Amino acid sequence: MNKGIRAGQVRVIGADGDQIGILPIQEALRIAGDEDLDLVEVSPDAKPPVCKIMDYGKFKYEQTKKKQEAKRKQKSTQIKEIKVRPKTNDHDLETKVRHIEKFIGKNDKVKVTLVFRGREFMLKEQANIILEKIIALTEGFAQVEQLPKFEGRVITMLLGPK
Known about the structure:
alpha/beta, Ubiquitin-like (UB roll), Translation Initiation Factor IF3, 2 domains, four-stranded mixed β-sheet, 8 strands, rod-shaped
């Protein structure tokens, strides 16, 4: 209501993007009705509020399409898990590394879990050797995101794409 603007007036932008000017709301609604379009409030906080003449249904449809496109371009990363034991032999380890390579190729992260059962708990050195072998074999395509961490009877390590 400052600078000579009275209540009930809005700044109107036409369907082509040109400014029509500051008009009473009834006049703006009449112009939008003559063009078979809607009067949509774009910026309610401005002085005076800004309204645009547009096809509201088409506007909502385009917004939905933009959201879907953004969602489609979004990359999703999953965490896959590979389990090994302290006595896992080299051939089985190579097979597990091929699985890791396949998962990393799909942009997934891989959680390597080394599980101790029974008295295997005494084989910590052997477990460390196995984890070092996995790190060495995956060096070309993966990086260690979380170093091996000991949690009870389990050692976990996280690998991610380079």
